Amino acid sequence: FAASDTLTLQIKAALIDAIPPFTRAHNPAAGGHNVLPETAISLEVLDEGAGVDTSALVMLVNGVPVAKKLFWFDEKRVRLDYQPASPFRYNEEVRVVVRARDRAQPPNEMPEEQYTFAIVEDRAPPLLTDLQPGRDALQAAPNTAISFYLRDELAGVNADSIRLVVNGNRVQPQISGTPRALFVRYQPPQPLQ
Predict the structure, then answer these.
(1) How far apart, in whole angstroms, are the C-alpha atoms of residue 123 and residue 143?
(2) Which residues contact 158 (CB under 8 A, 6 or more apart)?
(3) Where are the beta strands (DSSP E) in the chain?
(4) Distance between CA atoms of residues 90 and 119, nearest Å
């Protein structure tokens, strides 16, 4: 080449997206404890390259695919929200699985993410309150109704589990109220002895 010759060099570069999406901002947190039963599940899926393929997002809760809501921050960041139709059970361990891929060609699959969190534990038995006649009642009229409340501030009381026995005989009481405060009443058909 002579000093006056010009050399033109053209360089073409292509960015290769080889990094899959990832998650963050889990609510409840992975491994969380004492989570309220009515809690919604949310997390963000991010991809710093071609962006998140929202058509490929899958969330399973306890092994079941769920109808999640998507909120787009932009094509690289999406939030998944899931509100269960009914609350989780007390003492339950909830398992969440998330699958995602990006929009690169070919797409980068995120390794399946699995995590769990634990719902509040209810280890205390129901409380018997407002017993009528009282435990220490020495005398009560023979036709007195028997009544009391069964209270449980967490999971509540299953009304079908109540068994009332009077003088050795199983009887059928009237039950009303809510699972957290059930009122149980039994009116003997004839005077008790």
Answers:
(1) 37
(2) 179
(3) 22-27, 41-46, 58-61, 64-65, 69-74, 77-82, 93-99, 113-118, 127-132, 146-151, 164-166, 169-171, 174-178, 181-186
(4) 6
- Separation CA 71–CA 40 (nearest Å): 15
Instruction: With beta carbons less than 8 A apart as the criterion, state whether 181 and 149 touch.
Output: yes
What's the pLDDT at 143?
Answer: 83
CA distance 100 to 117: 21
Rounded to an integer, the average pLDDT of 103-119 is 96
Q: What are phi and psi of 54, to 5 degrees?
A: -65, -25
Given this model, what pLDDT does residue 193 score?
A: 72
Residue 54: predicted pLDDT? 95
The CA-to-CA distance between both ends of the chain, in Å, stands at 124
Residue 76 has which token pair?
């690289």
pTM beyond 0.85, yes or no: no
What confidence tens digit (pLDDT) does each residue in 68-102 have?
999 989 999 999 999 999 999 999 999 999 999 99
The torsion of the CA quartet 128, 131, 136, 138, rounded to 10 degrees, works out to -150
